[in-house]
Design a protein that fits this description.
By secondary structure, the chain is α/β, with parallel strands linked by helices. Helices cover 34% and strands 18% of the residues. It has two domains: 185 residues, Cypl, domain I (D-Maltodextrin-Binding Protein, domain 2, 3-Layer(aba) Sandwich); 98 residues, D-Maltodextrin-Binding Protein, domain 2 (3-Layer(aba) Sandwich). Pfam families: Phosphonate-bd.
């Protein structure tokens, strides 16, 4: 049976755009040298936050903290349309973008964005859940079943669970039906409207609590490996030495940066996380899923 509907790119991603900067010359770790060669300001975008008020609410403390660490003025630029970040990078209208793993792939493929650092989150895995007492004990038993997932393009709630099912021998185009129900997937599972529900391990208990449900009514069939983190990327038109210096400073001052992120209620998922060097290969799992679901040309 046909189970996966192709989504339009504009519906898959909500990429956030930012403003422009000038090119920079090579830099080193010296503060004096950085001051001479770094841009006078950086424009900062976040892919899943629309509007200047929301940016200020969720990232103002982080913006000012990073500004102090780099010694460079940083400005927000609110998104104007869902796919603005990639062309904004290409046209030098944005310098730094904070992106989820899926959005990173778009920025890397279409704008050759350079990964700076990633946030490795504690207990960030995809899990697949069934009702307590369900005969389903293995992922392979989800063949011909209906699975609730979060939304199209979600790393933990769509792409990674799909990869787990692929690894279990299932074809996402024909072997199971996917319905995108956001966090309401757990209610659909409870009512028997779906056979399984995919979500993130670090959201699981909070979702149950918010929906008035209890853990004993459910069973986790499978927990996947640690997922790649959200990533800060830079325009490839910034000097590589400046990007390296920025990476070094962000990792050196990661405690301050993480603390500034989690100052906002919306960013509590990063609590206890750490900054690590972002490697493009860490995101190959997501590329593979897009190929399997027939969306490889999107990347």
């Amino acid at each position: 049976m046909q189970t996966y509907e192709t989504a339009q790119p504009a519906l898959v991603f909500a990429l956030f755009a930012a403003g422009c900067t000038t090119g920079v010359n090579s830099t080193n770790n010296s503060s004096d040298q950085m001051a001479m060669t770094a841009p006078k300001k950086l424009k900062f975008a976040v892919t899943d936050v629309a509007g200047i008020k929301d940016l200020q609410r969720d990232y103002e403390v982080f913006r000012t903290t990073l500004e102090g660490i780099l010694g460079i003025k940083i400005e927000f630029f609110p998104v104007e349309n869902p796919t603005a970040a990639a062309p904004a990078l290409l046209s030098r209208e944005v310098d730094i973008v904070f992106a989820g793993p899926s959005e990173y792939l778009i920025l890397n493929a279409r704008a050759k964005a350079i990964p700076i650092i990633a946030i490795e989150r504690n207990n960030y895995h995809s899990i697949i859940v069934v009702r307590a007492g369900s005969p389903i004990k293995l992922l392979a038993q989800l063949k011909d079943k209906t699975i609730a997932m979060r939304n199209i393009g979600s790393t933990s709630g769509h792409l990674a669970p799909t990869k787990l099912l692929i690894d279990a021998g299932l074809d996402p185009k024909t072997d199971f039906k996917t319905v995108m129900l956001d966090d309401k997937g757990v209610q659909a599972l409870k009512k028997g409207e779906v056979d399984a529900w995919a979500t993130a391990s670090d959201r699981y208990k909070n979702i149950l609590e918010s929906e008035g449900l209890i853990e004993k009514d459910f069973s986790v069939v499978f927990k996947g490996p640690l997922l790649p983190g959200d990533v800060f990327v830079a325009s490839n038109q910034l000097a590589s030495s400046f990007i390296e210096d920025m990476r070094s400073r962000m990792i050196q001052h990661q405690d301050k940066l993480i603390q500034s992120l989690v100052a906002a209620k919306a960013n509590q998922k990063y609590k206890g996380g750490k900054l690590i060097t972002a490697n493009d290969a860490d995101y190959n799992m997501i590329r593979q899923v897009y190929q399997k679901i027939g969306q490889g040309n999107f990347l």
